[in-house]
Structure formats: structure tokens, C-alpha cells
Amino acid sequence: MALLHVDFFSDVLGMSMNMDVILPQQTTWQIGMEGKGADGRYKTVYLLHGMSDDQTIWQRRTSIERYVSKLGIAVVMPTTHLGFYTDTTYGMDYWTFISKELPKICREFFPQMSDKREDTLAAGLSMGGYGAWKLGLRQSDTFGAAASLSGALDIVEDMKRNSQEKRAPIFAGIFGSLEQLKGSENDLMALAGKLAAEKKELPRLYAWCGKEDFLYQGNLTAWEHVKKLGYDLYCEESAGDHQWQYWDAKIQDVLRWWLGTDIDLK
Fold this sequence. Notes:
By secondary structure, the protein is an alpha/beta fold. The protein has helices at 57-61, 64-68, 94-109, 127-138, 155-162, 168-175, 178-181, 188-197, 216-228, 244-259, and strands at 2-10, 15-23, 44-48, 74-78, 120-125, 145-149, 204-210, 233-238.
């Protein structure tokens, strides 16, 4: 595999941004790791971080490079700061950046990346799980599948919970008031209903959440909602709370689910 640290300028955000990118490479002599090249254009995973993190976190907390080395796929890990993958009320258009500008930039920088929706997965944890489902539900012609690990999938309830905490001004700066958030294009429940009503091709969805996670009830609500709307959802729950030992294991399951393979990634 090749690991690239990419500094680039975002016209949408008006500032320099960062992403780390893993690209497939056929290798023979690496000790302890098999490297597989891509067969044609690269399938690509956009792997999103949570509230406290940045583009480096998936490499620092998991073995993502080793997991994908056998698969011949690319992984894009961008930083989006604490913007909840949203065009915020304070004027920073993180949604436009992640959904429109970033895929275009990546495919210009790395022309072997596939532009097919079925070859493009959005995945993430916590805030990134929200962002991943949002990409699938609001940009389904680009992202054919979306996977959430411990995601903030019921964002309205999450904002209610944070309304009495020190993070309340942060959420207000991102989403506006609770009334502005409900039913908007930042509300995953509303997005799922809107897309289903439009009779467009729906994304495949994946979700996992631990039963001891503070986001667990919100996940159950979101899972039931999209099931009733007819989405192809694979969801599972198990013991666990909000930490990396679970996300490291579950990102392997996400890759197997997306690619339809039972390959041993360990």
C-alpha cells in the first residue's frame, strides 16, 4: 500500500485542508503484510472521523492500512473539523466540501479512483457515522453505500441532549435552532423519508452500535425508521460503549459487508 499525506486548498471553505489517502499497491516482499493491486479503477472508501479527531485518527487507532492491503481499494480520510459534515449557520460549508468538492478533487488527483456509485462507500464513527449516512441519503448518486459505527443518527435527539450542556453553542452554530434542524436536510430521518418518496435508487446502509453507548437509543430509532421505508439495512448491536476497540473490529465487518467477501483481514 501507499500512504499519502495530502495538503490542498478548498475553494468551498476558503482555506487549506488535509487528507490522508491509502492507495493499493501490488507487493511481494513486505514482511507480515500482503499488498494487492487494483483490478481496474479503485473502489474507494471515504472514512470519516468523529468530533474530537482529524484525518490521522483511523491510522492511529486502527490497522486500516493493513486491513485494506488485501483488497485493492483506496481509502480517503479527510479532516472536516468539528463541523458535523454540514453547511453550518456560522458560514463554513463543510457539507458542500465533503459531498461535492472532495470527491471531485480526489478523482482529479487520483484518476484511477472509480466514479461509480457502487464503487464508493462512505463510512465513519460517531459524528462521522452521521456524516456517512448523510452522504448516502443526500448524495446517493455518488455514494452507493454508507456505514455508521456508533453514529449520531438521531441528530434531533442528540441536539436536545446537548442543549443543556457546554456544547449547546457548538450545536447551535452548526445547525441553528432545534426547530431549524427538525425536518431539514441535516435531519437524517427526514432525508431518508424524502429520498424514499422520490423513488430514486436507495443506498445500501450498514450500522453497528454498542448497547452501552450513549447513542444506542438513537440508533434503534433510526434503524427502525429506515427499515419501514424499505432501505436495504444491515444493522447489528452487541455489548460495547463508545470506544476504539469496537470500531477497530467493526470496520473490518464493514469492508466485508460492502465488498461481499469473507476474506480474513486480520
